[in-house]
C-alpha cells in the first residue's frame, strides 16, 4: 500500500482511536472487585487506579518507540519478533491464541450475560422464578454460551456486521461512564455520600479476602484488566500522519483521558450508593439509586452491550490467531488452520478452534471463580493472571530493545524502557503478593500449554 493511502488519520482521530481501543468493560467489571479487595477503602482504590494508569502510560510510550522504529509492526506478535526473534514471536502468538484471548473471552462473555440477567430480573421481577442466582444460575450460563456462539458467528460468517456491531458498542459504552461520572459525583457532593464513603474506614467482614494482606497491590492487579488493550493502541503507528510527532502525543493524551474517565467513574459510583450497597450489589445499585429503577436499569443494559462489544473485539482477534501462525507455517496442523472459507473469506477452522478454547476457559472460570465448586489446587483467577503474564513476556522484549537499539537517544533507549521494565516488575510483584499460591498453579498450567505449543511446532520447517 502506498504511503498516502496508509497515513490517513490526524492527531484528534488518533486520540479517539486510543481511547476507543482501551476503554471497554473492565472498568464496570473490576470497580466492584477493587471495592471488595480494599473492603470499601476508597482512597486505596483511587491510588490503585492511578498506579495502574501510570504503568499503562509509561508502557504506551515505550512501545510507541518500537512502533516508530519497526514500521511494519502492527501487533503484539510483531513486536516480539522484531525485538527478540521469530521463535519468541511464535511463542507470543501461541500464548495470545490459546491462553490470553480465550481466557479474556471466557470472562467477558459471562460479565455480559450477568449484566443482561440483572437487567431482565430488574425489569421483569419474577420472570426467572424465585431464588434464581443471576450470577451463577443456569440461565446466566445458558446466555453466556449463547453469546459465545453468537459472537463467533458474527466474526466468522458476517465480518461486516461484526464491524458495525463494534462501532455501535464503542459509542454505547461511553454513555453509562459519562453519566455516572457527572451525576454520581454531583449527587455525592450534594448529599454528602462521597465525603462519608471516603472518610469512613474499611469494612471488616468475616470471609477471607485476597486483598486482606496487601489491598493496594491486589487492587493494582485488578486495574490491569481494565487498562488492558493499550498494547493494541500502539500499533496504529502506520496509519497516523506525521507519526513521529503525533503518535506519542495521541498516546499521552489518550492515556490521560482513559485514566481520568476511570477515576471519575469510580468516584461517581462512590457517590451513588453506600459502601455496604456497593460491596453487596456493585455499581448496578449506584445506577438504580441515581437514575431510578427504569432508567438505571437501562444503563445496566448499556453496560451489558458494552461488555459484548469488548468481547466481540477479542473474539475478532482470537478467531484469527491460529490462522496467523499457520499462514507462517508455524504451530499445529498449519495446513488445516491456514484454510480460508471461499464464501466468507474468513479462516473457519481457526475460528472453530477459538470458540472451543474460549468456551473451555469460560467453564474453567465459572467452576473456579463464580460457582466455587473447585477451589485450592489449580484454581486461579483467569481474568487477571493471563494479563500479568504479558508483563512477564514484555521483559525480554524491553531488555533486547535497550541492548540492541544503539541509534536511539537516552530517553528512548534507556529511560522509558527502564521505567516500563520497573512497571512490569511491580505488576509481577503485586501479582505474587495478591494471588500467592494461585500464581504457582497458573504458571504450571501456563508452562504446560507453552510446552505443547513448542512440541506442536517442532515438526514445522
Structure description:
The chain is mostly helical and 461 residues long. It has a single domain (10-458), classed as Amino acid/polyamine transporter I. The chain has helices spanning 3-6, 11-22, 26-37, 42-69, 76-83, 86-123, 138-157, 159-172, 174-191, 193-199, 215-227, 230-233, 243-270, 275-281, 283-326, 334-337, 348-370, 385-404, 410-435, 437-458. Helix 4 (42-69) crosses helix 19 (410-435). The longest helix is centred in the middle third of the chain and has 44 residues, at 283-326. The protein is globular. The two termini are 29 Å apart.
- Strand element count: 0
H/E series? HHHHHHHHHHHHHHHHHHHH
CATH domain class: Mainly Alpha
The percent range for strand residues is: under 5%
- Head-to-tail CA distance between termini: 29 Å
CATH architecture: Up-down Bundle
Q: Low-confidence parts, pLDDT < 50 over ≥5 residues?
A: 1-6
What is the typical, i.e. mean, pLDDT? 85
Note the total helix count. 20
Instruction: Give the overall shape, derived from the CA principal axes.
Output: globular
- Largest pleated sheet: none
Tally of distinct domains: 1
CATH-wise, what's the superfamily? Amino acid/polyamine transporter I
Backbone structural class: mainly alpha
What's the Cα radius of gyration?
22 Å
Reported by name, the CATH topology is Amino acid/polyamine transporter I
Helix content: over 70%
Topology:
Blueprint: H1 3-6, H2 11-22, H3 26-37, H4 42-69, H5 76-83, H6 86-123, H7 138-157, H8 159-172, H9 174-191, H10 193-199, H11 215-227, H12 230-233, H13 243-270, H14 275-281, H15 283-326, H16 334-337, H17 348-370, H18 385-404, H19 410-435, H20 437-458
Amino acid at each position: 500500500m502506498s504511503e498516502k493511502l496508509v497515513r490517513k488519520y490526524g492527531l484528534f482521530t488518533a486520540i479517539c482511536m486510543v481511547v476507543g481501543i482501551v476503554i471497554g468493560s473492565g472498568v464496570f467489571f473490576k470497580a466492584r472487585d477493587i471495592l471488595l479487595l480494599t473492603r470499601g477503602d476508597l482512597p486505596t482504590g483511587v491510588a490503585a487506579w492511578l498506579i495502574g494508569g501510570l504503568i499503562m502510560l509509561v508502557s504506551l510510550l515505550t512501545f510507541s518507540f518500537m512502533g516508530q522504529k519497526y514500521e511494519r509492526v502492527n501487533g503484539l506478535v510483531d513486536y516480539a519478533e522484531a525485538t527478540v526473534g521469530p521463535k519468541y514471536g511464535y511463542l507470543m502468538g501461541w500464548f495470545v491464541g490459546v491462553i490470553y484471548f480465550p481466557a479474556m473471552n471466557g470472562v467477558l462473555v459471562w460479565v455480559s450475560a450477568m449484566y443482561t440477567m440483572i437487567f431482565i430480573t430488574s425489569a421483569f421481577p419474577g420472570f426467572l422464578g424465585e431464588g434464581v442466582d443471576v450470577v451463577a444460575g443456569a440461565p446466566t450460563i445458558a446466555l453466556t454460551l449463547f453469546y459465545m456462539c453468537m459472537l463467533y458467528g458474527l466474526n466468522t460468517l458476517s465480518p461486516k456486521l461484526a464491524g458495525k456491531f463494534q462501532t455501535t458498542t464503542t459509542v454505547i459504552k461511553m454513555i453509562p461512564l459519562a453519566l455516572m461520572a457527572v451525576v454520581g459525583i454531583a449527587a455525592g457532593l450534594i448529599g454528602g455520600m462521597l465525603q462519608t464513603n471516603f472518610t469512613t474506614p474499611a469494612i471488616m467482614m468475616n470471609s477471607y479476602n485476597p486483598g486482606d494482606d496487601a489491598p493496594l497491590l491486589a487492587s493494582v492487579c485488578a486495574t490491569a484488566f481494565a487498562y488492558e488493550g493499550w498494547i493494541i493502541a500502539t500499533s496504529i503507528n502506520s496509519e497516523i500522519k506525521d507519526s513521529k510527532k503525533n503518535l506519542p502525543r495521541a498516546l499521552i493524551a489518550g492515556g490521560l483521558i482513559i485514566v481520568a474517565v476511570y477515576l471519575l467513574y469510580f468516584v461517581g459510583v462512590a457517590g451513588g450508593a453506600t459502601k455496604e450497597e456497593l460491596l453487596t450489589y456493585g455499581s448496578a445499585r449506584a445506577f438504580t439509586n441515581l437514575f431510578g429503577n427504569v432508567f438505571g436499569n437501562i444503563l445496566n443494559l448499556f453496560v451489558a452491550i458494552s461488555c459484548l462489544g469488548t468481547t466481540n473485539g477479542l473474539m475478532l482477534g482470537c478467531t484469527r490467531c491460529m490462522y496467523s501462525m499457520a499462514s507462517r507455517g508455524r504451530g499445529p496442523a498449519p495446513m488445516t488452520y491456514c484454510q480460508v472459507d471461499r464464501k466468507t473469506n474468513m479462516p473457519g477452522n481457526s475460528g472453530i478452534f477459538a470458540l472451543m478454547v474460549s468456551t473451555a476457559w469460560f467453564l474453567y472460570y465459572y467452576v473456579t471463580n463464580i460457582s466455587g465448586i473447585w477451589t485450592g489446587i489449580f484454581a486461579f483467577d483467569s481474568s487477571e493472571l493471563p494479563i500479568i503474564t504479558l508483563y512477564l513476556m514484555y521483559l525480554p522484549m524491553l531488555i533486547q530493545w535497550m541492548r540492541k537499539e544503539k541509534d536511539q537517544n537516552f530517553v528512548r533507549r534507556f529511560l522509558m524502557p527502564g521505567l516500563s521494565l520497573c512497571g512490569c516488575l511491580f505488576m509481577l510483584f503485586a501479582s505474587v503478593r495478591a494471588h500467592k499460591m494461585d500464581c504457582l498453579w497458573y504458571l504450571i498450567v501456563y508452562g504446560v500449554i507453552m510446552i505443547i505449543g513448542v512440541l506442536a511446532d517442532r515438526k514445522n520447517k
